[in-house]
Amino acid sequence: MAHRAVHIPVIFIVSTYSFTAFCLYILVSFARFETVKADNVFSASHTTTVPVAAARDLRYLLYDVNPPEGFNLRRDVYIRMASLVKTLRKEGDDWVLVLPPWGRLYHWQSPKIHQIHIPWGEFFSLTSLQANVPVIEYEEFIAENGGPFIDQVLVLQNYAEGWTDGKWEEKVDERSCIEKLMYSKDKQGYYRGWFWGYEETRARNVRCISAQGHASIMAPVLQKNITVTSVMLDRAETLLHDHYAGKDYWDTRRSMVFAKHLRLIGDDFRAKYLNSTDDRDHTIYSEDWTRMKAKLGSAKGGPYLGVHLRRKDFIWGHREDVPSLKGAVKKIRSLMKKHKLDKVFIATDADEEELKELKKLLPDMVRFEPSTEDLELFKDGGVAIIDQWICAHARVFIGTSVSTFSFRIHEEREILGFDPKTTYSRFCGDTEKECEQPTHWKIVY
Ligand SMILES: Nc1nc2c(ncn2[C@@H]2O[C@H](COP(=O)(O)OP(=O)(O)OP(=O)(O)O)[C@@H](O)[C@H]2O)c(=O)[nH]1
Ligand SMILES: *[C@@H]1O[C@H](CO)[C@@H](O)[C@H](O)[C@H]1NC(C)=O
Ligand SMILES: *[C@@H]1O[C@H](CO)[C@@H](O)[C@H](O)[C@H]1NC(C)=O
């Protein structure tokens, strides 16, 4: 299963962060200092301060991610691409990020519902995203571009030889493709591929690029080596964060505001089943994320314990850091007692059989269970967001070890202003010896 691999980038970023990120940060800051003087890089009017203002062509950056990666790692890759677009916009052309339609995700298995070609607007607030970096939906790109054509696809890959002498260095080079190319030429000489399930989409050219480093190492290549209008980076997860948990990371993360209809469903559910309202719980949310600066510890949260219990592929491998259901319920009971909470909300991807067992062990648990019509409307991604939203508003939260789903809840709680003591804890495996708890990443405003 590809899920082992899925976790590597996350752990990697966290572990390399200390020794590379600092250097990267310095590098990037220097580049910034040279080109733009403290202006707003996203406003159309900043052309006046850029030396090459005369020819600011509109260009499109598209991207896609390795198919087995889940929803929440894809949200993380978006942050890296937004950062790259910010770097690109500092010099030269007017780059716009094209949002890759959602669909065909491994975990989205609800039968009989159409889960392909899903625009970002169904899950996130587009105006919020746009307040951070210019973005458009894929279908808008097709319309603006005059057809479903992408000029250049760059398939990103690592270096065949790995790290030379075990030394980490940043580099990018055109190389022959290491893996079998997922694109093939049609009779007209165009390249056909997955393209988010848009069969009519084709590429004029496909090349492989070996890249090792942070997202913005692609900037010089896109600015200087390539002159065509639309470029797609496939396997974009190959690139690392420019500056993990830095200001730019958090700006983009804060701009990823959930779509309003999903937040409203979550809020109604909180009020109805969990006696939780923003007024009482001090979780007032500003529609404009740039004004959202809640002080740590200001949020109280609803009178319930929020739980993210990741199962499925996390238990198939008999991982040491994932508890049995009995172990999880024991922990839940003790947390409820400790914090004097009589309600518990559970978000989980557990299968039918495990759910039955869980209900037996914890008959009073509350879950968001969408009707068939609701599921058709929100889709698996929307239901996941509603679950995350409800967990994000709990008085106390506990998640699952190295689950990107849990990580996104941590960030949401950080934005809402919860005391870190109520957020950064996870279940321990039944026999786990050293149960390291999640890291607190503070928002940089
Ligand atoms: N509604 C709901 N869906 C969940 C829950 N936990 C997992 N899922 C589903 O399973 C997917 C989990 O994959 P990811 O989003 O990638 O998060 P992850 O737990 O880190 O898993 P990997 O990244 O695949 O290792 C989610 O996108 C959901 O579709 C949950 O508590 N509620
Ligand atoms: C980009 O162009 C430079 C200069 O021509 C060249 O040295 C470099 O190898 C090219 N990079 C890529 C990734 O094609
Ligand atoms: C809901 O919470 C309020 C304030 O904490 C409390 O006064 C009220 O009794 C609660 N209602 C229910 C139904 O638990």
Automatic annotation (TrEMBL):
InterPro entries in the cross-refs: GDP-Fuc_O-FucTrfase, OFUT2-like
Main location: endoplasmic reticulum
Keyword Disulfide bond: yes
CDD domains: O-FucT-2 (cd11298)
Gene Ontology terms: biological process: fucose metabolic process
Pathway assignment: Protein modification; protein glycosylation
An annotated Gene Ontology molecular function: peptide-O-fucosyltransferase activity
Keyword Acyltransferase attached: no
Catalysed conversion reaction: L-threonyl-[protein] + GDP-beta-L-fucose = 3-O-(alpha-L-fucosyl)-L-threonyl-[protein] + GDP + H(+); L-seryl-[protein] + GDP-beta-L-fucose = 3-O-(alpha-L-fucosyl)-L-seryl-[protein] + GDP + H(+)
Gene Ontology CC: one annotated term: Golgi apparatus
UniProt KW keywords: Carbohydrate metabolism, Disulfide bond, Endoplasmic reticulum, Fucose metabolism, Glycoprotein, Glycosyltransferase, Golgi apparatus, Membrane, Signal, Transferase, Transmembrane, Transmembrane helix
Location(s) in or outside the cell: Endoplasmic reticulum; Golgi apparatus
A Pfam family that the UniProt record links to this protein: O-FucT
Transmembrane residue ranges: 6-28
EC number(s) per entry: 2.4.1.221
Family: Belongs to the glycosyltransferase 68 family.
Function: Catalyzes the reaction that attaches fucose through an O-glycosidic linkage to a conserved serine or threonine residue in the consensus sequence C1-X-X-S/T-C2 of thrombospondin type I repeats (TSRs) where C1 and C2 are the first and second cysteines of the repeat, respectively. O-fucosylates members of several protein families including the ADAMTS, the thrombospondin (TSP) and spondin families. Required for the proper secretion of ADAMTS family members such as ADAMTSL1 and ADAMTS13.
Protein name per its UniProtKB record: GDP-fucose protein O-fucosyltransferase 2
